[in-house]
Specification:
Blueprint (H helix, E strand, L loop, with lengths): L2 H17 L9 E9 L6 E9 L2 E9 L11 E2 L1 E5 L20 H8 L1 E5 L18 E2 L3 E8 L2 H9 L3 E5 L10 H4 L11 H4 L1 E6 L1 E3 L22 E6 L2 E6 L4 E4 L7
Antiparallel strand pairs: 1-2, 1-10, 1-11, 2-3, 3-8, 4-7, 5-6, 5-9, 9-10, 12-13, 13-14
Length: 257
C-alpha cells in the first residue's frame, strides 16, 4: 500500500470525526477564489469549482510557486478543506513561532481535507500526500471533473470550503533552515516546509464564469529568508537541503489507482 496514504491517515482521522453527520445540501453553482499567499510564498493562484449534482469541475491555475533544479519538478499537493471556520490562517496561527504555519496550526481555520485535487485518478483524502498525482513545478494548470460527497457539497453551500495549495519555497519562507527541514506534522519523512500551505482561499459562491476580485484575507506577509537553503534533484525525487544541516528527500510514490 502507498506509504504516503498510511502516514496521512492519522492526520485525517480527526477531520473525519469532526465532519461526520454533516447534512447533504444542494450546492449547484460556481465557487471561486483568488488564492492568498501564506508562509512567505511569492506564488499566485485562482480556482473555480463548478458543481452540478455530485460532480465538481475544478479549474486551478497557479504560478510562481517553488521550482526545482536539474529537471525534477516540485510536487505541490492541493486540497478542498472544510468542517471548521472556513477561513485561511493568519500569522497568529504560528503558535510555536517557528516561522511556518503548519497544517495542524491551520486546521482550526480551514478544517480537515474533504477532497484531494489530483492531476488524475482518485481524489479522496487518502491521496492527501500522493506526490505522484500532485501539481508539478512552479506553474501549472489542473482541469478535471470528479465526484464529491454530501459533506463537501454542504461545506461549499455554507461558505466554509477552503482551497489550499501546499509546498513552500525554502528561499522565501520566513523561517530558519532547521524549522523548514523539521519533520512534517503530516509525514515525519518529509520536511515541514514541503507540506505546509503556500496558497489559500475560501471558495465563495459566484455567478458562473465570475471570479471574486480577491481571496480570503490570509494576513500573511511575504518575507525573504537569508538562510541558505537549496533543492537538488536526486534519484528521481526531490531533495531539500539546508546549509544549517539536514537533508530530506521528497520521494515520488506510485499511486495505486
Amino acid at each position: 500500500m502507498n506509504k504516503m496514504r498510511l502516514l496521512a491517515a492519522p492526520a485525517l482521522a480527526i477531520s473525519a470525526v469532526a465532519l461526520a453527520g454533516a447534512p447533504a445540501m444542494a450546492a449547484d453553482g460556481s465557487y471561486s477564489s483568488t488564492l492568498g499567499q501564506l508562509n512567505g510564498t511569492t506564488g499566485t493562484g485562482t480556482v473555480t469549482v463548478d458543481v452540478v449534482g455530485d460532480q465538481a469541475t475544478v479549474n486551478l491555475q497557479v504560478s510562481g510557486l517553488a521550482e526545482t533544479f536539474q529537471g525534477a519538478p516540485y510536487p505541490h499537493v492541493q486540497h478542498i478543506h472544510g468542517g471548521a471556520a472556513g477561513v485561511c490562517p493568519t500569522p497568529a496561527a504560528d503558535t510555536n513561532a517557528d516561522g511556518i504555519i503548519s497544517v495542524t496550526e491551520s486546521a482550526p481555520g480551514y478544517g480537515g481535507i474533504l477532497a484531494t485535487v489530483t492531476t488524475s485518478g482518485p481524489t479522496t483524502p487518502a491521496e492527501a500526500l500522493n506526490l505522484q498525482l500532485a501539481g508539478q513545478g512552479g506553474s501549472y494548470v489542473i482541469q478535471r471533473t470528479f465526484t464529491v460527497d454530501a459533506t463537501t457539497l454542504a461545506e461549499l453551500e455554507a461558505g466554509r470550503a477552503v482551497f489550499n495549495v501546499h509546498g513552500l519555497d525554502p528561499a522565501t519562507t520566513p523561517s530558519t533552515a532547521e524549522a523548514f527541514n523539521a519533520p512534517s506534522d503530516l509525514d515525519p519523512a518529509l520536511p515541514a516546509g514541503a507540506t505546509a500551505p503556500a496558497l489559500c482561499g475560501t471558495l465563495l459562491k459566484t455567478q458562473v464564469g465570475a471570479l471574486p476580485s480577491g481571496g480570503a484575507n490570509t494576513g500573511a506577509v511575504v518575507e525573504t529568508s537569508s538562510t541558505s537553503v537549496g533543492m537538488i534533484a536526486l534519484g528521481g525525487g526531490l531533495v531539500l537541503a539546508a546549509a544549517a544541516g539536514g537533508t530530506y528527500a521528497v520521494r515520488r510514490h506510485h499511486a495505486k489507482v
